[in-house]
Amino acid sequence: MKRLTGRQRVPGAHRNSGTRSSRDQRVRRPIDDDHYVVVDLDFDTAEEATALLEILRTRVWASPSASPALAGSAEARILETVEV
After folding, report:
1. Domain that includes residue 51, residue range
2. Within a domain: residue 15?
3. Is 67 contained in some domain?
């Protein structure tokens, strides 16, 4: 059985999302919880991040067939880098 990637389930979403490149994405998880994942994506603008978040909420997370690994509800926030 062939497994589809998220990009195959929702064609065009990543290409049109504004993410700069694959090197600007990080996937992390807590050392004590294999079922929790954090995906960190870099965007040039907050508007691009907001556009992808809208796609995730309406086309991906809202559809079990588009997000088969999602258990429960997804949580997402748009963050900005702060110089300290």
Report:
1. 6-60
2. yes
3. no
Tokens 């995906």 belong to: 39
Sign of torsion over alpha carbons 75, 46, 15, 57? positive
Taking the C-alpha atoms of residue 13 and residue 18, their distance in angstroms, rounded to an integer, is: 9
Q: What's the structural domain count of the chain? A: 1
SS3 57: helix
Taking the CA atoms of 83, 46, 25 and 61 in sequence, report the sign of the dihedral they define: positive
Q: CA angle at residue 25 from 23 to 27, to 5 degrees?
A: 125
Q: Is this prediction's pTM over 0.85?
A: no
| Residue 26 belongs to some domain of the structure | yes
pLDDT digits (tens, 9 = 90+) for 13-58: 555 555 554 457 889 999 999 888 888 888 888 888 899 899 889 9
